[in-house]
């Protein structure tokens, strides 16, 4: 196992449990029904050594926070989507919905409010009882409220109608449809359906995290509105793996990719790719230490006044040495700028 592949697997083990006094304990159970989620938000700079740093590549930092909660089921955020009125909808790899609304001041992210948590329900209305059944990794949230959730290990997409965290009871909705395809049969158990994005034409793109070919390209599927499935490949930056994506223009998607190395620690690269049989992303920004970063697994896009804003979220794996970060950036349309390093 290469060093670049080791950490995602360590994370997947830790996501199934909590380290308590050095012992791997059972993971927190899914929330018992819909519940308010108390959240505290501590502001974080982009560059701890130089809080004046704002730009990294084509992203301009618009504030960020570390999220914490007294609810022990909060954590493991592995997918993120944006809705109206500042609402963000996330899924956790322990089988929960997590919703909250951003608090912004002069356009900068300073906090969150109205948190809510609830278990993801299957098609018969039951919550996942084991990790393999509840390993949600990505969510697409359409304008009509339809939420499509990608699960890995048991690779499938569950479709939920009329989801709205502003109406918490909507999170009691059971899956109305399950999408499966034999095309995922070669995807690794702990490296399957990690990334899901809907294009403006209704097409779904579904990426595996692992299972790269000899050239290091990740397998992906294109699922047309009529259900037709075709294979794609995505060439992530060397050593990185795709973890989430969002469309920013017709046929153009932002993809967040993560990597761990013993020397560098956890880092992320955001790429911009055009949908094609082989997708080659251009680097938009690199979030590497000492810049603020963690196990970045969620990306969402909001548009306002002709500007495009990008939110990134991290999966803390319920590990004390990791954090749940929510970072906001503006995507700059100018040619890539040199990042000022601390």
From TrEMBL:
Domain of life: Bacteria
Span of domain Phytase-like: 73-318
Pfam annotation, one family: Phytase-like
Protein name per its UniProtKB record: Phytase-like domain-containing protein
Species in which this protein is naturally found: Glacieibacterium frigidum
């Amino acid at each position: 196992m290469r060093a670049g592949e080791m950490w995602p697997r360590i994370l997947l083990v830790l996501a199934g449990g909590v380290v308590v006094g050095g012992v791997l304990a059972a993971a927190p159970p899914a929330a018992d029904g819909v519940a308010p989620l108390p959240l505290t938000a501590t502001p974080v700079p982009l560059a701890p050594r130089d809080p004046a740093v704002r730009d990294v590549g084509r992203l301009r930092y618009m504030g960020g926070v570390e999220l914490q909660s007294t609810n022990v089921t909060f954590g493991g955020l592995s997918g993120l989507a944006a809705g109206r009125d500042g609402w963000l909808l996330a899924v956790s790899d322990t089988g929960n919905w997590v919703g909250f609304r951003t608090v912004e001041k002069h356009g900068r992210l300073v906090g969150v409010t109205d948190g809510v948590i609830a278990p993801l329900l299957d098609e018969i209305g039951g919550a996942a009882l084991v990790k393999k059944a509840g390993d949600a990794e990505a969510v697409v949230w359409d304008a009509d409220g339809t939420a499509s959730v990608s699960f890995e290990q048991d690779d499938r997409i569950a479709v939920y109608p009329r989801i709205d965290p502003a109406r918490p009871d909507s999170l009691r909705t059971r899956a109305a449809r399950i999408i499966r395809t034999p095309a995922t049969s070669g995807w690794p158990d702990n490296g399957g359906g990690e990334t899901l994005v809907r294009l403006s034409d209704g097409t779904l793109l579904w990426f595996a995290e692992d299972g790269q070919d000899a050239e290091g390209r990740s397998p992906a599927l294109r699922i047309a509105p009529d259900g037709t499935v075709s294979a794609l490949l995505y060439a992530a930056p060397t050593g990185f793996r795709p973890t989430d994506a969002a469309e920013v223009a017709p046929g153009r998607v932002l993809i967040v990719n993560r990597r761990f190395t013993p020397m560098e620690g956890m880092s992320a690269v955001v790429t911009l790719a055009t949908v094609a049989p082989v997708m080659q992303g251009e680097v938009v920004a690199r979030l590497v230490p000492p810049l603020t970063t963690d196990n970045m697994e969620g990306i969402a896009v909001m548009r306002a006044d002709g500007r495009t804003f990008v939110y990134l979220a991290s999966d803390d794996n319920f590990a004390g040495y990791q954090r749940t970060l929510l970072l906001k950036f503006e995507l700059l349309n100018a040619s890539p700028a040199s990042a000022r390093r601390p």
